[in-house]
Amino acid sequence: MRRIPAKIIPDSPLNIDSVTGSIADLQQASGDIPWHLEGKTDPWDLVESVMGLNIGGRYKEATAALEWMIKKQNSDGSWFSSYIDGRPEDRTRETHMACYLAVGLFHQYLIRRDKEELARFWPCAVKGVEFALSLQTPSGEIYWAKSPEGKVDPMSLLAGSSSIFMSLKCALAIARILGENRPLWADALTLLETSIQENIHTYNVSKSRFSMYWFYPILSGALRGKKAAARIDKYWGKYVIEDQGCRCVSDEPWVTIAETCELVLALHGMGRKQEARMVFSWIQDRVFEDHTFWCGYTYPDMVIWPEEKISWTNAVVLMAADALYRLTPAGPLFDHDSWDGHRFKGL
Question: Residue 9 has what pLDDT?
């Protein structure tokens, strides 16, 4: 099985085999990949782990995780918010979790170019997209979830809706590859884009303390150009600790590796490549002895917290490295210039 050699990045000590191996080592026989040993699984972060495995050449493990998702999908196209050992822990059904599979599948296709495998998982992704769009409002935003009792929670989250925007782009790209026409999805994408660009005030502002609220609209490509630049510049000091990384929440001294790497993806995606490399360099020594990355740490006392080795944290490190150094053909996935609407230029 092909693997990318360790330490091939010229200005980074990143050990790709170790980081990818840490994700694979957490995988259960069922294909499930929990957050950490004896931890929970959520569908969104599982897709992140799949992308990390594919970047590292662990195709067999990535496919097994996708097959686990097929088995766990609900009849309405959703997944439950979290599982422990395959059993539902939280039966909330979140829209952004339902459709993120499309991002993982398109990412996988860019690396493997396996159209037959793409078609095999496609019906599962279609059902997930349809579930998410069933909660879209006429003004474009998408309600975040259905409760365990089946009631729609009429609240829209900016980070979640931005993730759905990326998922819709990837779903439409897959549809094009497979020769399908999905005009209603394209219309939904346009509505959602307009909502994020022009009516950002409609999203739950109580979540603005989370850094995802800041950069996810840019990471997804919903905000581009001058609007993206203005948003990054305006709130940089609120969420970033210079020479350290990105806070998870603005009012806590807690730097998290995942959010820092997602910020790297957003910066690189909007064309700020030097800033992206700079931020990525800040976290290169935030590793355990086995070269896998911490989840986060407090600053300035530098206490590692939590101490578990997190699957999806290591996956997004690989995604950031792929964007910066083009380790695989999926490296340009989050670049704004790679997309013309919902058409990916690399196809």
Answer: 62
